[in-house]
Amino acid sequence: xxxxxxxxxxxxxxxxxxxxxxxxxxxxxxxxxxxxxxxxxxxxxxxxxxxxxxxxxxxxxxxxxxxxxxxxxxxxxxxxxxxxxxxxxxxxxxxxxxxxxxxxxxxxxxxxxxxxxxxxxxxxxxxxxxxxxxxxxxxxxxxxxxxxxxxxxxxxxxxxxxxxxxxxxxxxxxxxxxxxxxxxxxxxxxxxxxxxxxxxxxxxx
Length: 205
Hints:
By secondary structure, this protein is mostly helical. The chain contains 11 helices and no strands. The protein has helices at residues 7-13, 18-44, 52-76, 78-84, 88-106, 108-113, 115-138, 145-156, 160-170, 173-181, 183-204. The chain is globular and about 50 Å long. 28% of the residues are buried.
């Protein structure tokens, strides 16, 4: 999946290069309509019946339109943005928490029926997210720290909403359930990463 739309906000929370994060997201969404269909067909042997043109326009719209609006807002309302900037991270976290709550609540019955299995799945998903963070961080080891943070976040927090939709349509309920519960590490692993960054800063000092 391409990076989630909230990735630039997440990058800002951990003091990464937000501009780089936006650029990577934009490029990812340009290629997403083609890579998603190719990978789906390659790994599953199934044909993904998607309107490529429509999907391309949709993905481009949800990435390009917010970017344009953000730049216009920054140009004309920079003074107000500066005065209220301290609230943005909290608002972003609250909105993401509400989205995660809504998604998980749909599968609440399945989760309650097999809590031990869910805990086991969560363990492996957390390890996967941590691995994504590490791979993203070291993938451009020669760049400055803010860039490495941006790449780490961008590589880790994929567009789960799109993944859940595809899982519900083309995979078994078990796969869809795994995608739904992956919202939990999606919304909490950033805290672990932020602690790691703070710990590494203390060591460097």
